[in-house]
Each structure stands twice: as C-alpha cells, then as structure tokens.
Amino acid sequence: VQDQPVIMTECTSLQFVSPFAFEAMQKVDVVRLASLSDPELRLLLPCLVRMALCAPADQSQSWAQDKKLILRLLSGVEAVNSIVALLSVDFHALEQDASKEQQLRHKLGGGSGESILVSQLQHGLTLEFEHSDSPRRLRLVLSELLAIMNKVSESNGEFFFKSSELFESPVYLEEAADVLCILQAGTVLSAKIAVARSRLTATSASWVQAMVFIILVCRGLIKNGERQDEESLGGRRRTDALRFLCKMNPSQALKVRGMVVEECHLPGLGVALTLDHTKNEACEDGVSDLVCFVSGLLLGTNAKVRTWFGTFIRNGQQRKRETSSSVLWQMRRQLLLELMGILPTVRSTRIVEEADVDMEPNVSVYSGLKEEHVVKASALLRLYCALMGIAGLKPTEEEAEQLLQLMTSRPPATPAGVRFVSLSFCMLLAFSTLVSTPEQEQLMVVWLSWMIKEEAYFESTSGVSASFGEMLLLVAMYFHSNQLSAIIDLVCSTLGMKIVIKPSSLSRMKTIFTQEIFTEQVVTAHAVRVPVTSNLSANITGFLPIHCIYQLLRSRSFTKHKVSIKDWIYRQLCETSTPLHPQLLPLIDVYINSILTPASKSNPQATNQPVTEQEILNIFQGVIGGDNIRLNQRFSITAQLLVLYYILSYEEALLANTKTLAAMQRKPKSYSSSLMDQIPIKFLIRQAQGLQQELGGLHSALLRLLATNYPHLCIVDDWICEEEITGTDALLRRMLLTNNAKNHSPKQLQEAFSAVPVNHTQVMQIIEHLTLLSASELIPYAEVLTSNMNQLLNSGVPRRILQTVNKLWMVLNTVMPRRLWVMTVNALQPSIKFVRQQKYTQNDLMIDPLIVLRCDQRVHRCPPLMDITLHMLNGYLLASKAYLSAHLKETAEQDRPSQNNTIGLVGQTDAPEVTREELKNALLAAQDSAAVQILLEICLPTEEEKANGVNPDSLLRNVQSVITTSTPNKGIEEGEDNLLCNLREVQCLICCLLHQMYIADPNIAKLVHFQGYPCELLPLTVAGIPSMHICLDFIPELIAQPELEKQIFAIQLLSHLCIQYALPKSLSVARLAVNVMGTLLTVLTQAKRYAFFMPTLPSLVSFCRAFPPLYEDIMSLLIQIGQVCASDVATQTRDIDPIITRLQQIKEKPSGWSQICKDSSYKNGSRDTGSMDPDVQLCHCIERTVIEIINMSVSGI
Q1: What is one cellular component GO term in this UniProt entry (predicted)?
Q2: What is the pLDDT of residues 746-763, one digit of tens each?
C-alpha cells in the first residue's frame, strides 16, 4: 500500500452503459437488447449469462421464448465461456475462505502479505490473473478487494490512494469487471464489498462502479463524501462515479441531487447533475432548471445550504486555473449562454455614442426584450445578484458586459416588465462595478432616462402601479439627503435578499443621480406620481413616500418648480388608519406653510394650492346630516380627523401670518363659514377622545386649536355632561334599550308633538324611549325636537316633558352643538301675528349673541328651556369673541394704509391697530354687560307677578326667615312656596351663568356694577353669585365716582357684601364708606343730602351687624347728620331739638332706651312724619336707623 498521492491517467476511452441499454436491461426488453452493438452488449454479458443459465422464477411461455433469444445473442460472443466458468465455482467455500482471510487481516494488520484465498504469488498480480483459471481469478479479485477494505477501515474515512495493478490495467479490466459482477451476485459479502467499492481509489474505479452498481449505492457515496468535492481528487472521483451512474439512469438524477442538498455534500455533483438535466430538458422560453436550482440554494430559507453552496463558489474562484472540466466553469458558461440567448440583440456600447439619446423610446436603436423572455430575464438577474452578493462570485468581463446589456434592455409594459425594470435598477445600485467604462456609464444613463419617460406609460398599460417610479423617486431623495443606508435597505428589499453593499460603492451613482438624471426639478416632477401608501399607519415602518414628500415640501421644491402636490397629499390623508403615523401631522404643518408662505420674496405667487372645499366635504360624506352618523362613511375617522386638523391649522396660520401676507400683497382664501358649519367638529372630537392612544398627539393638537378658534365648543359644562353621557349610567341605560325605542321615527315624534295640547302621554312615552339612545342615534330627531319647543311653552305642559326635552337637548349638544343652537334659537322666536319670523344663521348669532335673548317671553319663566337658552348665550358670547378677534386680524392690515395717510404722522403707524383693538374690547365689554343687564332684568318679577304678591327680595328674606325664625309655620310655608316657583329657579340659573362670566372676566363684573342695576336685585346677586366678593376690589373706586347715584349704589352693594362676606377687607372698605359719608355730609346741598342719605342710611345697620366695632363711628355719623339737618331748619328748632336730644341720650345710655325702641311707633317710623320738609324726613330716618341698630345690638347681647 502506498499512502503518497499518485497521478494516474484518466480512462476516458472506456465504454459506459448507455441509458438505452440500461432501460432495456431493466425491463428485460429482448428486442431492444438485440439491437445493441457488440461493445454495448459486452458490458451486459455477466447479467445476461446469469439470466440465461440460472433457473428463472418466471416459468411462462413468453419468458422461455425470450430466453432463447438471449441464448442466441450470447452464442456468438467468445467472452461468454469465461463467465460461464465463473458461475461454476463453489461459492460457499469461497465465502468461508473470504471470511477467514478478513479475520486474519484484521488480526495481523493491513500490511500483512499472508492470504488464505491465494497462496504466495510467483509473479505479479496481473500475470497471475491472466494465467489463472476461473476459480483462482475469483480468489485473486476477492483478495484484492479485502485488502482495500482493510485499508479503508484504517484510514478513518480519509481519502487515500492505493495502487492496484489489477484494476489499473485496461487489458484485464473487462475480465476483472466480470469477476466483480459474479462475486456481487454469488457471495454474501456483497454488502462489505460494496463498502470497499465505495472507497476504490484506482483510476478506473469510476468506470468499474458504473458498470456494476445500482442506484441504491448513491446515498452511501454521498453521505460519506466530501463537503466540497472539487477541492480533492477523491471528491472529483466520487462525483464522476455518481455522475456516470445518473447518466446510465437519468430518471434517478434529480433524486440523487436531492440527496446532495440534503446531506450538504458534493456540491459539484449537484450542479453537474443539473447541467446534464438542463441539456436533456432544454427550454428556450421558460426558466431553466439550472437557474431554479442554484437560486433555490442561495435564496432559500436554509442558511446551512446557502453557506455550503457559497463556499463552493468562493473556493472554485480561488483556484488559479479553471478548465472546462470544472463544474463551476461549466455552470457559469451555461448561465452565460442562457443570458445571451434572451438578449434582444447583440449590442455594442459604441451604439450609444452614435445614437441620439433624446430619441423616442419606440424608435430608438434599442430592441425590446421579448415578452416571453421577461420572466426568465428577471430570474437570471436575481440569480446573478445572489451569486455575486451572497456567494461572492466575481464576474468576468464578458459576464459583466452581457449582464449590463440585459439590465439595460427594455421590456414590454406588463407587470412582469415592471418587475424586471425594478430588479435591473436595484442590481445597478448594488453592483455598480458592472459599469466600468464611460460607454457603459452612458448606456446606463440613457436607460435611466428611458425609465423616467416610460413610467407613466408602463403604469397605464400594465394595469399596475409602476413601482419602479416610486423607487426612482425614493432613491433620488435618498441621494439628495445622503441617506445611503436607506438605499441599501431598499435595494435588499426589492431584490429579496440580504447582501452586503458598501456605501462607498454608491458614490459614483450618487453623482449620476443628483447631477445628471434626477436633479431636484426632476425629483419634484416625479414625486406627485408616486403612489400613496394604502392604509398608512404607524405599523408601517421604514422610509415611505410620505417622507419624500415631507422633505420636498420643507425644501419648497414643489413651489419652486411649480408642481402641484395638493392632490397627492389629499389622497394620502384619505388613505390613513390607526395607529396614526407620526409623519402625518408634520406633513400637514409644512404643507400649510407652503400654501401661505412663498418660496421666495421675489416670487410671492410661488405657493401650493390648498385643498378645495368640495374635497373637504367629500371626506365627511355620510357624517353630515345623515340619518345615522355611523352609516355610509366612506373615509375612516383618522382621515376625517386629519382633515379637521388641516382646516383648523390652516385658519390659525392664516390669521397668524396676516401681517406678512399683507406686506406681500397676498390674501390666501379662507374657508367659508358655511363649510365649517357643515363639519361635525364636536362629534369628531368625541371620537378622537376615545382613540387618544392610537392618535398620538392629534387629540391634544385638536383641543388646542379648538380652544383658540372655537372656544364655544370647549365649555367645561359640556365636557362634564359628556362624562355623564358616556359613563356607566349610560351603559346601564343602553342595556334597557328595547325595540320600541328603536322603532320610533322622527315622523312619529312630530305627530306626538302635534297632539300635545290634548294628549301628553304619547310624546312623553316617545321621548322617554329616546333618552336610551346614544347621541349619534338622536341626530335624526334633532330638528323635530327643536322645532316643537315653542309648543312646550303653552300652559299645562307637564314639567316632566320639559325636563326630558332638556335632557335630550343636552345629549345632542355633545355631537352637534352649532347646528342645534341655530335650530333652537329660530324655534324659540316670539310668534307675532302677521310678522314673518327671521331665520338666523350661525354667522348672525356670532355677530350678535343677544339675539338668543330675544326669544319668547314665556321662556324666561320656563326653567328647562331657560337653561338651554343660557347655555346657548354663553356659547355665542364666547364664539363672538373669537369671531371678532379673527375679523380684526383679517382686516387690520387692509385698512392700515388709508388710516396712516389720514393721520399723516410719522412714527405712529401702530396707532390705528391699537385703536381697533380697543374698539373690539369695548364692543365685547358692551356686549357682555348688555347680556348681564338683560339677565338681571329677567330676574325681576313682572307686573303680573307683583300683583300676585311676589316681592323682589322676598326670596332671600324668606329663606333667612326659614333659617332664623323658630316658631311661625306661616313663614316656612311662604318660604317653601317661593323656593319652588319658576322665578326662583330661573334666578338660580341666571346667577350660575353670571358667576361663570364674572370668574372668566372680572372686568365684566366691574363694568356691570359701574353701570348699576336695580337695588332690589342686590340681595339676590350678592347671595346667589358666589363671585360677588370681587366687587370689594373696586367699590372704593365706585364710591369715588362723582355721580351721586353710583355712590349710593356702591354703599348699598357694600352693605350686602359685608353681611355675606364679613372679612377684614370688607371692614376696611366699610370704614372707608362711613368716612366718605361723613365727608359728603359737609359738601352736599340740602337736596342732594336728602337724596344721598335717605337710601344709604339703612346700609349703616348692615355695617353694624357685620362689624360691631363700627358702632361708635356710625352713631357719631348719625348724630352729626342730624345736627346738620337741624341747623338747616332753625325755624323748626322746636321740632328738631327733641330728636337730637333723644339721639344723644340713646348714644350715651342705649340700654335704658331698649324698651322704648321696641315701641311699635318707633319701629314703624310713624312718629313726626307729617312734615314734608326733607331735613325733617331725614331726621326721622336717622332716628329709625339708630333704633334698628339698638334693637340689633340688644338682641345680639
């Protein structure tokens, strides 16, 4: 045995069993066997001889005839005699000797020369074989095989060379093969011999194996084979053997290839079998088996197979020379031939120089790729991408040239053609080294230009969105923004494989894109043709078309190059869903900025177009005025919320940029108020509130815009009401919802309202059922409810109906407040005969909110409807403020030049603007104060109520009497009666609204009290409005007013505030008031003195009740007033002096006068009142005041 490598000569001239012969032998087709040539028949002799001589299992007549034909075939062949002799050997004895020799070799080692099968050889093995008879030949071959088997067991599976004189001699090869065949059939050592044969290392072993083995040996050969067969001589031998076997039986070739992939051994064999199969099953139009097989290995999901085959490619390239015998070379050659076979024409890059690059694609010198070749071309491109990107294949110049020719070919406008263009483009980006010469670069540029021109044609003709158009734009945007990693991700995603692309390899492509092909203008023109992302949401990650459009909008590319992007943005907003994509809000903001702000000052018209009103209304189709707000919605709630955000942001930005736009003499169009009235803003905000987690920051952004532009939709009371409507109680009510409630139609409700004068039950039943419906389900009933409110003002309508209608109105107010308010105001107008009622609009009510209070007077004494009226008034007052502020911003700069010219003063350009702001504030203040004054007037009892004995301040006094009086039941009954009256309830509602208004803007309270109102309302306002304590801040200023009426009102107001709020601040203001009264005593004339002190002296009693420390000062003031009055009427001293004397005595000894003060004449002030002199009357008033103070003090003690 020789362990060193031995170079041997290939037996290429040996004859192999042909597939025809193998099939004939396999089927025992005697006719086909008879047609074989002598060389082919010689290979089958051992099998035919055994078939003819051995007793067959088939005893049929047909087989007897076939056997005769076989004997006839063998009769003329000389070698048959030697084979027959081999069959006459005693195989049992031979097997026993073989077993003994195998044990002996195992015991003594493989190098032992002893043998039981054969004695010592006198000559060489070949001569012994030649001179021996048949039994000895069998023993010689079997001994040689056992020696090889023993060597295999000692090699531990490693490949080795063994020089075998017998098997290397071509002269004895046929006889040796005959012996092997007989041994295989006649001994029980066939399995062990098969193992030895699987390890044969002689030069002709592959030929011998092909002669005798069946396909079952293949798995053992593959499993024990090398992982890389072309790296060793043993691997190549094994590959050749298996390849010869598969050539003999081609039907098993694909099964053997599957074994190769399964075991990840002998990759060259797999490729070789595929090449053989491709040649046998050649298909010009379809994708070849070679392309499918190699693509499956490299692009499959099995990473182990991918690594194994990639190593085969890399190792094959590392060998210094590749001959035609290399499987890798054969594979590359076959792929190149397939690639060249589908090229439209054999083109040279020199054509580009002669061709006009501006020629139309259809008439250019470039031939198109045939439609039947497009799919095959795409498969080849992906295969070469995998070979170069995954397996590391380095293309030759010829391969690179042909690949470039294929990539730059022009397919037909089909979906497959679109796919081919996309793959070609990505392959150019991934393997820019394919473009190495200026001619090739020019060819690529021409092809890319063709892509740009043909994009729209491909999209319209193929029926699919031309994905390569979007890809071109994305890549161009990436190059312009230097996002090379994003380009790499895009290429890998399109090719469907993860390959390594160095960013530095894209530098040349970046230059070509940004400077020659895709300039900013070209990118902008193509951006609008990129399809929008369907169902865009935060779940879709990565760089999307919206990012491209956003970057282009930021750079103002669309406006600079006059490209309209409005339609694209509108379509993308329509194609959105939750969760909200984070790029949508920035996109809307930058789009609004591009509408209002020109790209450059030199060209103020270079702006984008806003979305039209009709397009906006289309978004809300099915929501506006439908029978059910949830039905027929074409667009998602996300799209509607985004469009709402766009409108509100646009209007806010338009107002914020008014000065800038006026300076540029530009006035972008604002959306009409009628459009805003048709959008269900409140309903959309409610929907957004329930989707806050999915909408990101959209809900908070909408609330900010509403608080600024629509404050009347952000009333806190409404939010509290919404919480009640959407809470647990509402859920329980929904569980009680019956079919009867759902079956009531608006028409039935109208009929029930018509029957209210005679039947209350029907309408009560229907509206009670309606309370179980949700807010959106109530919308169809809104018009009927509001239009019949006037009927509810008639006498005899049950309070429960009114309260239920109020409840339904508040529910509707959560989804459609603005439309509901307009309908309600128009429904509650006073009905005057022969006078046509005016139909107010939303704009009318925002300009003049006081229209709300010009309702039917009966509403003022109907608390449920008055509650609705006050709610609307509050909303329209807020809306009016926002409307006037917006109007001021819109018109300020338009009137500014003329005002400046009128003034004609340099440096006072801001004066008109300040004046307009002051006028607006004055108008709003007058509007609010007028509303307050009207509401206070409503709190006063009417003449009819006065006739029935209702006192303006009896409500408060009766409440106090209920609390303070311990015995009289009559007072309690009167108090309860007044507390339950409609006027009392209306007063409470009005006081609640006034409290909110005072808290929101304390200046309103100041203005109203400077204007004044009936003093009869002071007990009501001070006790019913908790925020009245703020009046303490401005009462000193009010007392300082020169008008006597304001001073009187201030002191009366202060007296009630001191009782309600006995605070240190109240004490100081009260002391100030007493001092002011003392000062005024010295300056007022007789008439004014009487007019001032007569209404203010009773207030001193309240001061003493609230603050006893003021007792001394107040008593001194009263005596001083009395003395002044006495001095003015000297002629009546006899009448006045007793009074002054009594006052001084009372001051000195008040306890002694306590019984006198309880006299009814003093309490009623009936003494000495016959005089009509003002001073006399004032003195009597002083006396009554003192007595009241004394009574209060005594009762307090």
Answers
A1: integrator complex
A2: 888 888 888 888 888 888
